[in-house]
Amino acid sequence: MAKQQFEAESKRLLDLMINSIYSKREVFLRELISNASDAIDKMYYLALTDDSITFDQSDYYIRIDVDKEKRQLTVTDTGIGMTKEELASNLGVIAKSGSLAFKNENEIKDGHDIIGQFGVGFYAAFMVADHVTVHSRAHGEEQAYQWYSEGAEGFTIEPCEKESVGTTITLKIKENADEEDFDQFLEPSHLQSIIKKYSDFIRYPIKMELSEQKLKADSDDEYETVIEEKTVNSMVPIWKKNKSELTDDDYIQFYQEKHYGFDQPLNHIHISVDGNIRYQAILYIPETAPYDYYSAEYEKGLELYSSGVLIMNKAPELLPDYFSFVKGLVDSEDLSLNISREMLQHDRQLKLIEKNLTRKIKQELLKMLRNDREKYEKFFEAFGRQLKFGVYNDFGQHKETLKDLLLFYSSTEKKLVTLKEYVERMKEGQDSIFYATGETNARIERLPQTELVQEKGYEILYLTDDIDEFAIKMLVDYDEKTFKSVSSGDLNLVDDQDEESVELTDEEQALFNKMKEILKDKVTDVRRSKRLKSHPVCLTNEGEISIEMEKVLSMMPD
Ligand code: ADP
Ligand code: MG
What we know:
about 550 residues; 16 helices; binds adenosine-5'-diphosphate; binds magnesium ion; ATP-binding
């Protein structure tokens, strides 16, 4: 049988792909398994419309076998198979997807979902194999065919024997080369872990023979190695299940299985959207911040799946920075498996999902704030700083989203309060939200500047975090009430006289002039104040930058 040539572009593409598309070799298995799953899905679709086919779930499975001696790895499925023509066109032309064509022809829009649509996944096999043989018998055909290829040079097709409908793909695994360990792909337990990682939620059983140490019958200390066929994948992912079937414990267990964190999540959000873009998501709000959370090392992101197949461990595009603490995953049937990181950044669907998730996270936090204040305060202790950074960053673009999630310590309530609560308690005629900055609540309490404001019965928010005042300045106001530092020149308190209108005696004037002369580089003015009670003197502020902010700014690297 004459060797057919891959098309010229295909040849170049194949080389390129084998060496660059996939960051890890192990994903070849994910690709072959997803093709096998697609092939079974196609049988399922046929059965839906053709009464002569019965779809008995137990007849459909994927098998992985290893022959270490021959360095062979095979992936077998009982799916729809390929005809001679299909072998030539689907496996012979790169970037041609039989699965995409099948979807289009059958106008499949929902239900079980076929993963393939790019037409490059199959070639990932050449990342680990010297040559690949495909035996396939198509549904409705008696004759089976064998496709064989050593890579970019082309392929051959010839008739072969195959008892049942379906496809077997045999890889001749490469020999170990310097620093490249290919033997691992012949190790059942390693293959099992790869399947768990990428293909745990493939809807059909993935079977494998695995050895296990078992106690010998009628012995309690002698073990023997038994080889047993096992289903490796768990098939139905938790996010595809109905919320009503799941308990809080199920979600917590999943959080731990996934190693999202060592803590217990404070909350989970389970989302299922069936609109313009379809996706499911499970999100968690952790209880404690990871040790590196407020450092440049921390990487935000959610796991991204396409129809149950993992395509990315951390897709940062799915979360805004101010919610970077959220853990979890998104699974969408509308994303393709082979999507690359560069493409993701421009993906419109991903942006839509991000917007939607952001809204849900906000709703969930507001709900927690309303219904479980203690829990919310715990959350705020861990991640409140990030929300305040969110208000400050991007020129306050996100302040509308975040302002109701902020908490500050209140001088009158002696606990954390929201801005809304502050405004609701404001005195008649009060037009500003007062705040004071300092290192600790105790220090702020002793500031001369807070004295008069306190005495007149006004509530003051104590800002003790570096970022606080920057965030407040970015907010400008809340509910049309402007923020005002108790250190600012004009407090405009009710029944407070204009400080400067008080006549000074000549003696006082002379004293003030003298003080100004001595302090000339340090202050802009020296004034008499009615603000002071028990303190003889205090500093006030005229400009936009407060004394506290200046301290923070001067500590920042240039
Ligand atoms: P994609 O899955 O994105 O379509 P692939 O390169 O993974 O691209 O596969 C190319 C095509 O080969 C598939 O669309 C499908 O038509 C066919 N194919 C691959 N593997 C199998 C299989 N196990 N059974 C039936 N058809 C298959
Ligand atoms: Mg594929």
